[in-house]
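Obj: model holo form, ligand = zinc ion.
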Amino acid sequence: MSSSGTSPRAFFIPLLLLSLRKFKLTNMTFKNFIQLLFCFVFTFSYAQNKMNKTKKAIIASVENHKDNLIKISDDIWALAETAFEEHQSSKILADYAEQQGFQVERGVADIPTAFVATFGSGKPVISVLGEFDALPGLSQKAEPTKNPLNEGAAGHGCGHNMFGAASLGAAIAIKEQIENGTLKGTIKFFGTPSEEKYFGKIWMVNAGLWDDVDVNVSWHPSASIEADVQSTLALIDFKIEFYGQAAHASGDPWNGRSASDALELYTTGVNYYREHVRPTVRMHYHIQDGGQVVNVVPDYSRLWMRVRDTKRSGMMPVYEQVKKMAEGAAIMANVDYKVSLISGIYEVLVNREGGKIMQSNLELLGPIEYTDEEIAFGKGIQEATGKKQVGMDSAIKPLEETQEHPGGGSTDVGDVSWNVPNINLGVTVAPKDTPWHSWAVVACGGMSIGHKGMLYAAKAMSMTMADLFENPELVKSVKSEYEKRKGDEVYEAMIPEGPPPISNKGN
Ligand SMILES: [Zn+2]
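Output (holo structure tokens):
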């Protein structure tokens, strides 16, 4: 069976409606009746056919594991471990994969919390990504008003607790079909830590972990359901340090050379430069150390600088320019300086052929249904965050055009997408217009709205993977689009020499 292209239902449903219009009990002809019958039978039998045996089995598998997947998601939600510290969260996912018969390799790419779970053998090799890190300071109970679970602690404000659980559920559903002989090939689940800081996937990509993979599938928790065919921004993070000479700020300031003067001059330069960059460029910085006390001329300062643009090719010249500014600031303040690369990520390489496969499966699954309590919870979140109280949005929209300048955020899925064709999905786990990276996402991710989205994502991804396993020509079309979009650009991981920054607390 094929799942690509426009759904024939889109053609037959209007025909059916047309027949219904003609349908009048009093003067229905035999011809009208047969026409009506034909359309009914064709429309519904086609829908049945599209949901083939494999997909029915996949949905049953996700449902079978439902309680465990929800528990995994909730446990990771409660742990809320941050970048590279996700030891228990990683273990929960890896252990469950191992129990299910996957061969699990832990601590890959020199990252203790990164792992690969593999099942099956031979081609095709299809993989799925699972993130599980939380964000600092966003602790929240599963309630529709702001109320921290542990004051000051971390929380899953990006929904990565559901991300990991759903992807594992999808991998298991495929594994069961390989095990019973329905599908042939290899399924890999990648446990990918530290998406929120440092971008762990870059080191995993650099270690060649996707080299034998044909197609990768991923998703992200969202406030709507869509086969995601939009890119993200490329970004680069680097650290600038200034080294001066300490002195008494009033007694003998002429003996001092101020590292914080250099820092101020540097940020002034960056802020003037904003006027002369393209509108798609973003520059932000975080002053990490600007001196300790007022009566000492600071001999050290440090800032975390970030540059983004729609594409890496646009970002790099801006990066080179703001690096040079560090030298200018150091000259003016008569101090020394050092620029160090932290890490940088690519924009996502979109795959529309893959998006079409995902879209056809979303149409098969249909929207998520919510209870009155869940809709009320969603409206509560909207009220608390000053949004219109419209509730949940889980409608299946048509596949969108891919925008030239998508704006928005960045993800290290970008680096994966430059090394293997990637199919992406967004699934509703929070009400419409929910502020992301906020307590509101944490709240929904710990209750049934999040659970429903997580299980839905598991089904949509595994159905899409099943299409790839069953149709080599789909893998071929996804791959050929990938080759075309990548062109002759050679991927180059934007990371410094040496091991990943596992123990770099805060700098
Ligand atoms: Zn995220």
